[in-house]
Amino acid sequence: MSALRIGLLLGWRQIQRANIWTTSLIIFVMMLTFLNLIVVSGVLVGLIAGAERAVKAESLGDIVISELDGEDRILETEALVRAIETYDEIQNYSVRYQGSAILEANYKERRNLAAERDIANATVTGIDPAQEDAMSGLSDNLIAGEYLNPDEEGYILIGYYYLEENAEQFGDIFDTLSNIAPGVPVRLTAGDVSKEFIVKGIVQSKVDEVSLNTYIPEREFRRLFGRLNPDADQIVIRVAKPEQDSTVQRGLIASGFADYAKIQLYEEAKPKFITDIKNTMNLLGTFIGSIGIVVASITIFIIIFINAISRRQQIGILKGIGIERRAIEIAYVIQAAFYALLGSALGALLTYGFLIGFFERNPIKFPFSDGILVAPPEETFIRFVVLFVITLVAGFVPAWLIVKQNTLNSILGRK
Amino acid sequence: MAIIEAQSIHRRFGEGDLVAHILKGINIKIEPGEFVAIMGKSGAGKSTLMYQLSVLDTPSEGSVIIDDVDVASLEEHERTSFRLRTLGYIFQNYALVPDLSARENVMLPLLMKNLSWQEAKQVAGTAIDSVGLQGKYENLPAELSGGEQQRVAIARAIAGKPKIIFADEPTANLDSVSGKQVIDLLTELHRSHQHTIVMVTHEREYATNCTRIVDMEDGRIVSDVPN
Ligand SMILES: Nc1ncnc2c1ncn2[C@@H]1O[C@H](COP(=O)(O)OP(=O)(O)OP(=O)(O)O)[C@@H](O)[C@H]1O
Ligand SMILES: [Mg+2]
Question: Which structural domain range is residue B213 located in?
């Protein structure tokens, strides 16, 4: 107790009388260490989080309903949709039909019947255009042409990956079509049924489910694929407030719909690899950050060592007049704590006061994602505690090394 | 009943052929209330003897009993605590903590003794007053003259009311006027409070007020007479 008081007094006075520039520099180093620890992994994780956020906004929403294992479709779709309509918590939803068909272009210009046809295996999604747009903002993803008009028939939206001019960007891994532009006719063939559509628009997104897709109105989809029964393949739901997702999920399950379809929250429905990559990124960021911690702890070690060794005689005299070793060690640990606390506080202020908002407004542009900065406070706190404890140890060890030296030798400056 | 009793203490440094035999069998008894001056030529072993008597060093041979405690038997932390409670030190080079004010320097051992902050402050203030430095409580050591710093060091040594005060050439770094002041102060402390004081000094003049003069030569006491 008395050792703590003396330690505080000695440590705090040393901080007060220290050179302000040196102190600022040390605190700056600690702040960089904190940022390195939080921001590097935050940006790496943010790349994936940005991608996930886009998937949630433009494709899957908060709740994803799909067919049960062993079934082809969502059973009792009409009853389910009626139930969905009754929830005030649900802001938007979209019922989707999905199938795969052969998409063909340039067939009218083809003179030589022996030449290869311009075809691609395409995913086709049947939607209610207005409903889908409200749900996923599909029309915002148009890069050419116009969005589907609810009263028109015979029009299609094509994802931009199916355009030949974009093929090499992706190493030619998808089938593509040439000369696709709004107004051009294309043909969809599902089984024996073929139908011509006019390209109404081209959609592009960082979400592959949009860019590698084609959209036609639901009625035409069901005709083309011979789906007389209205059971759909996917229903996606957006709730008004994020925390309402599980309320709605529980409600739908309580109404017995779990017998007809799989009702999952986004977190449950998202592909597992996303979580895996996120964890990997986090680990990578932590590893990079740990190097920073090592550097910072060596810095603190050296600073405290030099500080203590230059006061070796004074330390000897303090012990000579009866001050416990513990008190003197505390004086140095307090200085290390001060640097770590202030550096981290500044780093946290910068992270939460500026950087997160900055990346929100100016995301890092990646082909597959708009990267943001992810720094959950609990995780930041844990990392801060690690940094703090390591700094304390880095301050304690050199103090301990010097304080434990023989008292008289310290006083007299002997070896 | 002697407060310090040293019996045939030897102090050697080094090992083998290089061993230096510095103290060669010292016997000394000091009674409470004595003001002892240890004198002798440079290198005679005065400081070395004082370190043995003040629990800063351990003799190679012999025993030191202070206030009925055989100090050789103490663990390191017990020695620290013993020094805090029983001894006061005045070092040659003032030895104040440069970051602390005069009063905080004096407060250190008091806080270590578990006095409350307010008590320590008050006792330290009184001690500083008694060495004639009223109004200099808040000065940093660098803002005091050498003589004043040494007087703060004396205040620190006496504030905790130790049983014995050790001073190793407390005037060595001072001009003659400040040196005289420091000696007068020690004399006054001895006179008014019956402090036991052991002081090493070169100058015979500074020893005039001592009650006893011990002369050393080459690691031995060659004369020990009342003054
Ligand atoms: N650690 C040590 N190792 C070897 N020799 C030492 C050591 N400490 C002291 N000595 C020697 O012991 C002798 C006595 O030293 P001491 O400091 O006691 O002398 P002193 O009488 O106080 O002299 P001064 O008046 O100059 O202070 C000196 O010759 C010194 O070199
Ligand atoms: Mg000496």
Answer: 35-59+75-226
- For ligand 1, whether the C-beta of B42 sits within 6 Å is yes
**pLDDT tens column, B75-133:** 999 999 999 999 999 988 768 999 999 999 999 999 999 999 999 999 999 999 988 99
Residue with tokens 């051992």: B109
Domain assignment present for B1: no
Whether chain A has a CB inside 8 Å of the CB on B109: the answer is yes
State the Cα–Cα distance between residues B22 and B31, nearest whole angstrom. Answer: 25
Ligand 1 atom closest to Cα of B51?
Answer: 18
| Residues of chain A with C-beta less than 8 angstroms from the C-beta of B113 | 2
CA B216 – ligand 1 centroid, Å: 12
Q: How confident is the model at residue A288 (pLDDT cuts 50, 70, 90)?
A: confident
Residues in B closer than 8 angstroms to A11, CB to CB, are none
Give this complex's ipTM: 0.93
Name the average pLDDT for chain A. Answer: 91
* Domains contained in chain B, number: 1
Distance CA A206, CA A370 (A): 8
Which residue from B196, B177, B172, B176 is spatially nearest to B186, judged by alpha carbons? Answer: B196
Closest C-alpha to ligand 1, atom 25? B42
CB contact under 8 A, B97 and A322: no
β-pair partners for B200: B38, B168
Q: State pTM to two decimals.
A: 0.80
Residue labelled with tokens 């094509």: A158
Dist CA B214 CA B199 (whole Å):
10
Nearest chain A residue to B100 by CA distance is A13
Q: What is the CATH number of the domain that holds B103?
A: 3.40.50.300
Radius of gyration of chain A (CA): 32
